[in-house]
Amino acid sequence: MKILVVIIGMAIVTYLPRLLPALFLDRVKFPAWFEKWLKSIPYAVLGALIFPGVLLVEKDQPLLGLAGGITAFFLALLNIHITLVMAGAIVVVILLQFYIF
Which residue among 76, 78, 85, 99 sits deepest, i.e. has the most Cβ atoms within 10 Å of its Cβ? Predict the structure, then answer.
């Protein structure tokens, strides 16, 4: 019974911070500069989450991950499908791992 209460409590604590902005923020009109700033946050967060992982693909060889990240960056600039971007980066890392390092 204690575990069920803890799970329900954690669900409420997790759900409320997501629910409240969804209910009330659509009624608030922000200035244009603030909306532009808010729209750029997901990209900044995504970069902050991905970049350290790129360097830690192989602990002994951070250049492998960097090569894959650079490959993914340039493939993404070509506006190809995200699956092909990921596949291209993976192929580059595998080829470098087996043939160079």
Answer: 85
